[in-house]
Amino acid sequence: MSSRSDLPARRRAAIAGLGMTDMGKVYGRSAQQFAAEAVRRAVADAGLRLGDVDGLLVSAGLAGGVDLSLQNDLGLEDLRLLSQMQSFGSTAGAMVQHATMAVEAGMADTVVCVFADAPLREGTSTGAAYAADRYSPKGWGGMVASSGFIGPNSFYALAARRHMQAYGTTSKQLGEIAVAQRKWAAMNPLARFREPVDIADHQESRLVAEPFHLLDCCLVSNGGIAVVVTRGDRAASLAQPPVSVLGWAQAHPGGSLRRDDDLGLVSGAARAGPQALRMAGVSLADIDIAELYDCYTFTVLLTLEDYGFCAKGEGGEFVSTPGVLGPGGSLPVNTGGGQLSSYYMWGMTPLSEAIIQARGQAGARQVPDHELVLVSGNGGIFSHHSTLVLSA
């Protein structure tokens, strides 16, 4: 950290480009094709050419198919950095961290990070994208599966139920998160679900895996998102307002479903959040906007606790307090609607909205104070976590 603080501002990395394809029920394209389009859009958004790119970090979602051959599909030559990364929902944050370190170390000048996925098939239900047969558990996983725990719905529901038993958290309190994010989505033209919902709608939506109702769960999307990371001095001369990468951290607790595990009580956010803030040289009170990974409403609640926005066990009361999470609130959270209402691009969902807000380009949903944005990524049922602190 001290060595980075000695870097002159012009050497510190910034996000200079953002590329987003059409997302949602978009058929007829592979994940690799979405990835290539997202990269081209991100480079053009920055005012650069593909030939300016000398680093490429790629990540695939549930459908797979995005790999190192993307370099050839894009016609990129003589790259100085090329890697395929995977830590599930924390990957987007991790890619930006690696790209930042590469740029600041002089390993590469312009690095593109891209995620794409295409699990949806026309004529097939959305739920089929996460069908149990995709997981084919073996070994210890097979023994757990014999008890009916297959797929992320079951495991995240188990974590949420444990938090409820420990701290008295309720389903209606989780519903407050879904309602607040839908209010943000109503102002986002990219959001898939924009119609208003209330707590009654949340409670009446069907149960998916108790205690989760349908409105507690993220949607599933086809599409791709890419970002361009380059040096601060170069970013300042490009087409878009640069978004500085001030701080970052990762945490990978591991040990899921083992004796004395703390699943549902604490996540990697408890370590990664404070570390990223220290690197950035800011405090939690300085944060203007929080873009938090929201595969489920409970993920948001636990991350808010672990980052320290409220005390452990008080997340339910915090999210239920009027005037906190939603538009005009004291802590704007997931200002584009998040993965619950807008689009599901793993960790690129909170990252893309953070960039849009930091640039001041969010239109009707723009938060007036947007100098500092905290971004989280979560993956593997709280096994992986990444945090970014971004600055306008």
From TrEMBL:
<dbReference type="InterPro" id="IPR055140">
    <property type="entry name" value="Thiolase_C_2"/>
</dbReference>
<dbReference type="InterPro" id="IPR016039">
    <property type="entry name" value="Thiolase-like"/>
</dbReference>
<dbReference type="GO" id="GO:0016747">
    <property type="term" value="F:acyltransferase activity, transferring groups other than amino-acyl groups"/>
</dbReference>
<protein>
    <submittedName>
        <fullName>Thiolase family protein</fullName>
    </submittedName>
</protein>
<feature type="domain" description="Thiolase C-terminal">
    <location>
        <begin position="250"/>
        <end position="391"/>
    </location>
</feature>
<dbReference type="InterPro" id="IPR002155">
    <property type="entry name" value="Thiolase"/>
</dbReference>
<dbReference type="Pfam" id="PF22691">
    <property type="entry name" value="Thiolase_C_1"/>
</dbReference>
